[in-house]
Each structure stands twice: as C-alpha cells, then as structure tokens.
Amino acid sequence: MKKVRRIKRAARRRHVESVRASPQKAEEDRVRSGVNGLDDLIGGGFERNSVILVCGDAGSGKTTLNLQFLYNGAEQYDEPGIFITFEEGKKSVYKHAMQYGWDFKSLEDKGLFTFIEYRPQQIAEIIKGGSSTVKDSIDSIGVKRIGIDSLTSYSMLFKTPYEGREAVLSLFNRLRDWKCTSMIVSEIILQFGSKRGEAGVEFLSDAVLLLYYARQQDLKVRALEILKMRGTRHSDKVCPFKFSDKGIVVFPKDSVFGRL
Fold it and tell me: What is the pTM (predicted TM-score) of this model?
C-alpha cells in the first residue's frame, strides 16, 4: 500500500512538473517577430517553420515589417536570414533600411544575412529543380528566417488562377522543406473586412497579417489585424501601429478610432 501511494505521489509530481514546464516549452517554440507590440497579439511569436503572409495596400508597411523581422531576428535572436526580392535592388533596400538603423551590410559581413535578387522566372525554376542559391545559403550560414518580396510578382508568371495557386502551394511547400520561418509580402488591395486574396493564398499559408492604410476624414490611419495563425491563440483585435525611428511599433492595448 505504501508503495502504491509513493507511485501515485511521484506520478502527481511528474504531472505538475510537466504542466509547469509546458508554458516554457511553448515559449521556446515561438519565433519572436522583432516588432515591438506584435508578439503580444500572437502568443509570444510566430509558430516555428511556419509560412506567414503579410497583405496590404501600397505604402502600408509590408516590406518594412518583413525587413524588421529579418534584421531583428539576426541581430537580437541570432537567427540568420535571407531576403529574396523580385523588384527592389540591394542598394535601394539597404539605403532605406538604414533610416531605422538596420545595417544589413554589417549583418552580411558577420555571416548572418544574405540578399538574393531574382527575376520571377528564376524562382519558378527553383521550385521545379530544388537545388538553388537559396538552399546553398541556408546550409552555409544556417538560415532560420526567409523574407520574400513579393508573392504578387511570382503569381503573375502563371496564366490561370489554378496554375498560380499550384505554383504558390509548391513555393510554400519548398519553404517548409527548408525548415525556416518565412514571411512573404503580398500586394493585395484590401478594404476593411475583406477576407479574399489572390489565388486563395490565405488558405495555403499558416498565418495571415493584414496591414491597413486607410483614410479617416482628413487623416490616414495605419492598423494591423491577425486574420489567422495556426497553432496560436491570437488576438482578433484591429490594432493601430506607427513607424518609429526603429521600425514599426504596434499598440496592442489601443483601438483604432472610427472605422477603416
């Protein structure tokens, strides 16, 4: 009888210890966004190795959010990154990033960052062939984060929505195979409450962030919404954000005045 009681007490202790340890383990499994205030909305960070879609109008802050995710990931959390672009060149990206104090050239010199400029048709060849400059960089510097700007340029290569959707699915699967947390910009023009994107890509990704840049009378208002995030109890609130001298800052406790 005493032996049975000892076994039961030991089992209860193990259960309590596992319960106490689980929040810590969950915390370790999250990927910090590097964006002040955003992690409060998404359970402490993104799910590791997930594909995150960032949608919004022109000028809403999509590329800035992507670069902030990459720069602070490398600088603050020692997670090397790659930025893949189909449009803006390296010199321009690095110049504009410096306004927030993001010295990507320094990260490159430390082996924490790689900038890759592709024509859209080249990325299509990567998806078909598998071997690529991206994979070589992942292996050489131990990449943990990938940023892509933008999915729209990639989708335009294909003749039909079906072909575009299949190509995007192949791209997302390749990113997951690489075991990286990936953030992809999509230039979808959204109105408040719109839930439909190009080729239905919001259903293919693991997470969708919507950035709004809307007019309220004589003012322009910036706001962020988490449309979905698998494996995460995320906030449904539409929160304001602003650009600071260190990048985007989200205000999770504040509300957007009026309607977007």
Answer: 0.82
